Amino acid sequence: MLQEALPPPVPEGAGVGRAGLIAGVRAGFPFAIAGGILAISFGVVAQDIGMSKAAAIIMSTIVFAGSAQFAALAIVGGGGAIGAAIVAAALMNSRFLAMSIALAPSLPGGPLWRALQGQATVDASWAIASRGDGTFDRALLFGSTAIQYVAWVGGTIIGAFGGGALGDTDRFGLDAVYPAFFAGLLINELHDRRSRVVAATGGLIALVLVPIAPAGVPILAASLAALAGLTRQARADTAAVLQAEHGS
Amino acid sequence: MNGTVLLIAGCAVITFLIKAAGPVFLGGRDLPIAFRSVIMVLAPALFAALVATQALADGKHIAIGPETAGVAAGALVAWRTRSIVGCVVAAAAVTALLRAL
Description:
Shape of chain B: extended
Structural class of chain B: mainly alpha
Number of strands of chain A: 0
Largest interface: A-B, 119 and 79 residues
Oligomer: heterodimer
Helix content of chain B: over 70%
Number of domains of chain A: 2
Strand content of chain A: under 5%
Distance between the termini of chain B: 41 Å
Shape of chain A: globular
Largest sheet of chain B: 2 strands, antiparallel
Order of helices and strands of chain B: HHHEEHH
Structural class of chain A: mainly alpha
Number of helices of chain A: 13
Order of helices and strands of chain A: HHHHHHHHHHHHH
């Protein structure tokens, strides 16, 4: 019965309005600032391993995936093979597979258009666009990703051109920026007992796998903790959320 | 030079494919309750894993350092103020301070 009561994946008339995009840009702004700081350190690190300014900026422009870019540079900088660096980037990005699957039903249109919309998947935007009922607001997703993209490319340009003046960015604690960014995102998600238990379980799964699996795999594997959403109680709670939304 | 082109192109293509995969193969369908239930707790699982692997490990070793304390300070700020910029700045500041000591 509840199944029938569910709305279609994309509600009618759910175009991407100007107001929604602007709300997305606003919501994404603080994350864009944090991401921009990170991008500056990416620009510096890229220089350190001998990448040209142009290459660093082009990489941020067309890859636009912070953790993957850092992972790839770490491999190349350590004398590793290009293929190994690409694999490392893919593994770091594997969490986006889980996120893009979650997002899929909320994206309308043909396969190609959906593939393009999926490119807006970045960590903070994905969290911002989540409506808390398993669906996502596209306008918020696009708006918040747009501002973060500008900051990511802009920060890389600043780092590439001005990085020489900075020297060793670890001195400024910039290596703590990335995990802190995710800690901030995590804290926003901890609103009930279930989310806290899932977070603790996910963190534990990842830590157990760190010594034995390649970087990135522990993160994807941690998504198994989300199977806690399959318990009878969790499904009942989800059904209650959906009924509260559409019941009136 | 060619290596750099290959690296960037490879990373760009693989990232595109990963982000496209979900929407291409699973887009435009209805959502069972169970699917939604799992999605609703996916974020805490993934973000906790990202924090744990970066703040409590160095490469393949479990390790804590100045950045662990920095991230803890940032988390505290995020918890009390809900400010992501405050969180990141506090984390960097505490880490830098501990390294300078």
